[in-house]
Amino acid sequence: MRRIWRKALAQPTIGNHRGATGQLCAKDAMRGGSEQEGKRETMQDTMAECPICAKQQGEVLGGPIYQDELVYAHHVYNRDGGPTFLGYVRAETRRHVPSFAELTPEEAQAVGLLIARLSKAIKACTGADHVYAFFYGDHVPHLHVHVFARYPGTPEEFWRERVDEWPRSPKGGAEDVAALAQRLREYLAESAVVVD
Ligand SMILES: [Zn+2]
Fold it and tell me: For residue 173, how far is the Cα from the chain centroid?
């Protein structure tokens, strides 16, 4: 298990914005984080500059896939041009907390359920045969879990953070991302879960 985790951390793309393609790096959310490094800031200042807080309060391409008072999810879009890997969503807390360690029991429950439901929705809406869920939290101190598809036939050399580098992986433009976001949103709405 330790070996697998270490290998995953060493991979170049998802969650690491020094990746070769930048495709799965969520640059919209990551960029602000690195600029904050080395600064001493109050929590309020950090929240004011947090790209995830700002995004949740603004607009995102395709709209939120899911949102309630505790959690939020959307499909990641490659703003730097070039096609976007389809089937990469991010599950986030509403509250500006850095990691799972700071979650309330209610938030932890909501995040876990959201990841499970997103995983099921991605499989159903994209044809993925496996869905990953990665958390790092190194650059932006606002809990966000990378949830993304692995498509049938993906060679093992392209597993984990490199799924987008497989030349045959499905990619698209803004319209494709928005359309998939809509399908995911509808799937989640139609499979609503009631938790006591
Ligand atoms: Zn935040």
Answer: 18
